[in-house]
Amino acid sequence: KNQVEQSPQSLIILEGKNCTLQCNYTVSPFSNLRWYKQDTGRGPVSLTIMTFSENTKSNGRYTATLDADTKQSSLHITASQLSDSASYICVVSARAAGNKLTFGGGTRVLVKP
Amino acid sequence: DAGVIQSPRHEVTEMGQEVTLRCKPISGHDYLFWYRQTMMRGLELLIYFNNNVPIDDSGMPEDRFSAKMPNASFSTLKIQPSEPRDSAVYFCASSLVPGTGGHPSTDTQYFGPGTRLTVL
Question: What pLDDT score does B100 carry?
Answer without folding.
Answer: 35
